[in-house]
Structure formats: structure tokens, C-alpha cells
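Entry 14. Two folds queued back to back today. First construct below, sequence then C-alpha cells.
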Amino acid sequence: MDLEKRRRINKKIFTVFGIFIVLIIVLFALLPNDKSTTTEQTQGESKSERVMSESEIKRFNEYAPKLAGGTLIKEAKANGSVAEVVYADFEEHKKLHPKDKMTKQLFDDYWGTGDKINKVLMEEPLRLLREFPGLNDVKMTVNYNGKKYHVEVNRKTIEEYFNINLDEIHNDESLDKWRSEVVQVYFTKEEREKYVAKFIKTN
């Protein structure tokens, strides 16, 4: 076989081999991205993981009146993974509880003293998220003197802001982690002011 013929054969071999490599690359490019799909599924599943069971919702209904200012709560409800708590203003409270001995002075003493509204809107949603693992979002509103003080937080936001793990705190029956990681560190007037600036809306 002469040299020229050998070169032609080698050229054909390299051409076929090159086409084969290109086809393999194209096939891999067309295959579905299983990793991406799996990640999306995992994220979707994690979003739907937090759902309150019927027993949790029942316990929530029993627990809500024990929140700070519980006797002034107009509405407290939980649905799916969302809880909403609304505190009545004085007029609403008297309509709902006409026999209650609450006076306007007592009402003002409760909400108008110190930073009570900030304290409730910071601490009580956190308590609910600690207490109920199926709960993911908390909305809370205080109505006072014609204004609405509102906060809306979720589990991830709270965990990142306070640098805590709510599931671990929930599972600690001694409440040592709750006291050492949350109460002793963040339940101060200074920390509430930072929290208010970031999360609480007034209108």
C-alpha cells in the first residue's frame, strides 16, 4: 500500500472518529439535567413539609389565648402552615366582651406602657414557631389608638435573623436552649428596637 493511500484511509478514520465524538457530546447535552430536577423537587418538597396536623391546629387554638395579652385577642387561627393573630382595639374588645371589666385606662396602661407592642410582636411569633413545628409563617397585628402594628415572619427568616434552629429548640424540653440562645440574648429593649426597624410595619 503506497503512502498516499494510507493517508486517505487514516483521514477517513479520523473523520469518522470525530463525527462519533461530536454525536456523543450532542447526546449528553440533550439529556435532562437530573441533578437540577432533583434539586427543584427537593426545594418544592421542603416548602410543603411544614403543614400543621389537625392535632397541632387544635393545640394552637388552646395555646393562643395564653399568648401575651391573650384576653385582648380578637382572632387567632391556623391553616396549613400559616397562623394569624389579631389583637382588638379597645372598642372592638368591648363589643366582643361587653361584660369584661377592662377600662380604657387599663387598656392604655397595657399597650401604652414602655415598648409593650414591640415586645409582643417580636416575642410571640417566635414562641409560636418554637412551639409548633408544622408552622412556617406567622402574621400578627396589634390595633391600638387608631393604628395597626403588623409583623409577618416565616421560619427561615427568624432562624437566619436570630441565628437559631427552631426544631432543636423545640426538641429541648428543658428549654435551656430557648433561654440561653433566645431569651437572654435577644429579649431586650435594644434588640427589640432593631427587630422593629426591620420587621414591624405601622399604618
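Second construct, same run, same settings:
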Amino acid sequence: MSTPSDRSQEPLMTVRAAVILMLATQIAVAVGVLTVMAGNAWAVAVLAAGGSFAGTVAFARSVIA
């Protein structure tokens, strides 16, 4: 009978994934804030932030090795 592996010591995500998500979150927040400050509605700001988050993740995945 095999013993189950102890997964409690494994990290939740890699450092690369954490950096990509942190960068995308920071850019999305900045885009959302700037969109609201430009006089647009909150809904427009959320859509702009979501789009920038997705774009940043796609770009950063291809750039960060």
C-alpha cells in the first residue's frame, strides 16, 4: 500500500504565476481608477479594468519566462 504524498508543503502557485497576477491586478486597478477619474461610470471602469487584466495576463505570460 502506498503512502499518500504530503501536499501541505507544496506552494499554492509558482512565483511566476504570482508575479503575473500581481502585475495584472495592479494595472487593472490603475486602469479602473483612471477611467472613473476621467468621468466615466463605474460599470465602464469595471469593464475597462477587466479587459486590461486579461490583456496583461496574456502579455505577461508570453514575456515572463
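Quick look at the second one. The two ends are 39 Å apart (CA to CA). The CA atoms of residues 20 and 58 lie 9 Å apart.
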